[in-house]
Queue: 2 jobs
Job 1
Amino acid sequence: MGLFLAGMTALAVIILLAAVIYGFIVPLKVHFRTDLADTRGSLAEQGDKPFVGLALSGGGARAAVFAAAGMEALHKRGMLDQITHVSSVSGGGFAASYLALHPVETDARAYFKRMQSVMAHDFFWDVQMNQLRRPSRAFSPSRRLVSLQDALNRQDFLDGAVFGHLPKDRTFFFNSVSYDTGRRFVFSNGTLPPHDADDTVALPSALRSLSFSGGENLRATPNEVPLSLAVATSAAFPPYLGPTTIQIEGRNAQADEYWHLGDGGVVENTGIETLREAIYARGDKRQAVIYVFNAGQRLNSELSRKSADISIWSREVTRLVDVLLEYATAHRETMSAELDAKNGMDIRVIEFDYLAISKAAASGAPAFAHWLTWDGWYYSTHADRMASKTPAEHLVKVPTALKITACDRQLVAQAAADLVAQHFDPVRS
């Protein structure tokens, strides 16, 4: 009996090692295969509705919770139904995909409570458990991305949905980046002009996104593409996740082509640019409105200058991305203003930035006095209160991750509610 158990144990160890070695030697994975010539998508139809966009930024679970709370705040004011286009990046895509597959119900309070519960789920733990069940994924970020897909396909979330399941009355854009070209790549149930189209009303080619469109033919993302793949790709921050590899099968003796995609926040973390592209593609010069829920962390100059060692190559490597985003955003905003003026486009951007809470609290704004004391924040722990003097200070420290604590969730959700109230109900807030 002892020899049998020893043999079985040895066999299990050999199988485990073989799986790990296989994942290390063959780390790549093709996540989706298609023939562009046969690509078909189910397009959303907006009719002649005024353009109202919703941009949901990246920022892991923090961004997902912030976006969900922001949508609830808009819904309370009867504004969520007016949204025609939703553009999301990374964590914002979690909330966008939930809205796409689970329309708001009559009992809105219960609906958003469930939505927040899903957004606050510990997806990091699920990914790790999926990794343990599939050891061949251990040394492969592109295979680890499949573990995130599996986690997203919970029964109460994406549940195996594909793009063909998306609604037809609203356009959704899930933003990623092409590692082959350095440009935005968009998964969508709508279409945008080809990035190289010659159109006097269109944006310059450099500001347009790539997609499944080929040549002059406009195509949406194929119906059979898993929604979990688009959401996971948009959140695939290197080197932990990705890249997603899409194989474009060659025709007429042509060789296959491979597209490599990753986290859209690397090039533009708010989702605004894709909405602006969609507005320009319409050629409609009526006023367009974009609501932006920005939960992305940015460079904190004041805090940085107080630190002797910011440890860029160990604990703060993402700061390099933040530096590039700061630079790119400044140029993009300047160019956008000039292009809009030149083309007679009226685009109103209303941004709700979670970091604005700490600034408002520090300025002594009466509406934000509750951010200066821990009284009433029933999910805060002793450790939270010891780590930060005030909730406003603690809000800035909420990390970018695939999980979030109960205290951080409460802070982020309240931040969204307060910012929307401040903008639309300044007297009451």
Job 2
Amino acid sequence: MGLRNKKQPTAAGAAVQLRDGIRHPFGLLDGYVPLCGGEMELYRSIREAVPLVDAAIWKLVRLAGGLQVQCRDPAAQEGLEQFLKQVSTGRGQRGIQSFLDQYLDTMLTCGRAVGEIVLDRRRGEIAAVLCGDPAGVEIREGDSPLQFTLCARDSSGGLSPLPWQELLLFTPFQPEVGSPYGVSLLRSMPFLAGILLKIYQAVGMNWERMGNVRFAVVCKPGSDGMDGVWAQERSRQIAQEWSSAMQAGKDGSVRDFVAVGDVDIKVIGADNQVLDSQVPVRQILEQLIARTGIPPFLLGLSWSATERMSAQQADMMTSEITAIRRNLTPVAERICELWLRLHGYGGGVTIDWVDINLQDLVEEARAELYREQARKVRLENEAHPGSAGQ
């Protein structure tokens, strides 16, 4: 009986192991489509993902703060100032400035801000001034732009007007014609912010590959052809031994890797060149900063060795902050006027904002020196009137 040849094993390599694609955690920015509403979570994600944008908004909020109130009735001045310092604004905060900071932060981020004046049970005193979530408030317009009602969704999903409309505060930021809602400061940022996050994600992945090196172990078959027959078994053994050697290195011990045959070990990606991200990142950041109106060096970006605020930049920054303050003035006036009516005082109030000062300390000192020199010359002229004409 003739001998039958045994079936030779098929030459095959080890199974290829694939990694899942890694995306940055703010995936909402990739699938963004501009809509009229519902994008507030997107804007909050931009602030969380890009620290520069978050810092710019907080910078605007801090620069816009600081108000003083002047009552037309002098008898109410002291009481109103005490109320503005001590009024509760929720979550352990007190003072009208903490409310305005949160109100402005929401207005810049979401495009609109909502607040509420809370009265005590006797309705004779303002107990608190609170900020609300603008995502839960919708507007029902009347027959004219002067008529609108703030509404909220009830348990059945329908719109129900909120009670005590006269105690609610609503401010849109830069509203467009035909829309009662405002426009967020971050409306034009999702596209560029998405590209910026992709660049940062790629940089992080490249550093992960270079810091945690991957190896490619290649075993070439010999000239006798027998290595090709047992390629699968040999590749499995080499992979197992290599994995054991790498695991020993993680545990702090040294283990040699021994293999038979022509084995070639290379570092994966060692011959690739990492793209320079400095230029595209700067271009994107320039676009984002231009929307905020803040000079770059105020946000910690030193793109030039002689960065400083020029007089033109200071004037533009002052005009930006003044425009933001115009949105907060009616809110502060409504709160103060309601307090005056509840306490029986007549007349209104005048909101005076603290002067914006963005100049360098050196320039301030030089200006003060010039004023003192002018004052000295004026006093000398007054003391010796005849010497001024000589």
